[in-house]
Amino acid sequence: MKVLISAASRHGSTTGIAEAIGEVLTAKGFEVDIRRPEEVSTVQPYDGVVIGSGVYAGRWLDSAKKLIDRESAALAYKPVWLFSSGPIGEPAKPEGEPADVAGLLERVHAMDHRIFPGKLDRHQLGLAEKAIVAVVHAADGDFRAWEPVREWAASIAATLETTLAEEAIR
Q1: Sign of the C-alpha dihedral, residues 46, 4, 100, 95?
Q2: Three-state SS for 146?
Q3: pLDDT surpasses 80 at 139
Q4: Among 110, 30, 121, 118, which residue's Cα sits nearest to residue 78?
Q5: Structurally, how many domains does the chain consist of?
Q6: How far apart are the first and last CA of the chain?
Q7: Average pLDDT over the chain, rounded to an integer
Q8: Per-residue b/e over 73-102, b at no fewer than 16 CB within 10 Å?
């Protein structure tokens, strides 16, 4: 069984989450491809798809949204999971789902969407990003919670195993 994990990441934090998901799925026996959205030409060869994006100004990055736009017809007939990465601090802020996620979930009939805390390193930011971080008083640090990421990945594996077994019976 082949799974695509595609993550849009500006500074690597979301890619790290995608890699952690991939490690769990690989350990469960899945063949996993981890690709940036720009590197995905088709989702056709995959039995399941996980798409994630860093969240900036309350929205997904364009490359992840464009992947969903390009492949929405095929994604609508595959098991798809979405994740967002971005809230930082303790407690994590901002709260709530990114503004564009509801439409994406509906468009691909996603099985689930999770929001995972992100990471902020001011040294990696451009001038405009530093200005935004200063205005919102965002805290530096790595707030990614690895155990919830691994648990979610394990639940994806279990769902895929069940779904694909049921299809094999038909």
Answers
A1: positive
A2: helix
A3: no
A4: 110
A5: 1
A6: 17
A7: 87
A8: eebeebbbbbbbbbbbbeeeebeeebebbe
Handedness of CA 95, 93, 149, 118 (dihedral sign): positive
Task: Give the per-residue pLDDT at 169.
Answer: 66
Q: How does pLDDT run across 56-93, given as a tens digit for each residue?
A: 778 899 999 999 999 999 999 999 999 999 866 666 66
Q: Residue 53: which domain range?
A: 2-169
Residue in the block written with tokens 């991939």: 22
Say what the pLDDT of residue 18 is: 98
CA distance 15 to 9: 6
Neighbour count for residue 24 (Cβ, 10 Å)? 19
Helix (H) or strand (E) holding 132: helix 127-136
Question: CATH number of the domain that 30 lies in?
Answer: 3.40.50.360
Confidence grade of residue 165 (pLDDT, cut at 50, 70, 90): low
Residue with tokens 């979930």: 105
DSSP at 24: H
